[in-house]
Amino acid sequence: MTAAHTYASDVAFTHAVKAIQTRKGSREAYGRVEQRGWRTEVDENLEAFLADANSFYFATASADGQPYIQHRGGPKGFLKVLDKQTLAFADYAGNQQYLTQGNLSENAKAYIFVMDYAHRRRVKIWGEARVVEDDDALTDVLMPKGYRARPEQVIVFKIAAWDTNCPQHIPQKFDAADVAAALAARDQRIAELEAQVAALKGRATAEES
């Protein structure tokens, strides 16, 4: 949070945003949100949420304000908590456009948007990010064990503020792996029940004879 910010939420609620809130009638409600305060540190709930996340969207902007969003994915928990105000992840080799790295080289402001479609939850995290190259020790800490990707560098994200959203309008979707596991468990239970039915029928037949 910069010195110009009175509240943590000022990272998002700029003067222009507040003016529109005032004109459209929501400023009083969000004024109370400011008083309660957005969170600026990782708590147990956020840490647990990130530990279960295998995907997020990472936004940056160029020096002249052109926004860019990239998807980042990996095993659950690949976006790691380094301390109460710092997140980090191994940045895997990709198509070598380097838009995110280029943006961060001239504008450190960044944003993380994490969606949990299955439970219709989302978390918004504002902050600043930097690229760390040639730090083998940090890369080793952040690289998921056994994951088939080549880490090219590390991105470290300093939290300014974070908040959650209501589930309104979030479509409920499920990961293919979770669906496959649920179907496998169902099929196993069906097989067990069918075996029990067959055993009961066999017993009844034996008793009748």
Automatic annotation (TrEMBL):
Residue ranges occupied by any Pyridoxamine 5'-phosphate oxidase N-terminal domain in the UniProt entry: 43-166
Gene3D superfamilies: Electron Transport, Fmn-binding Protein, Chain A
Protein name: Pyridoxamine 5'-phosphate oxidase
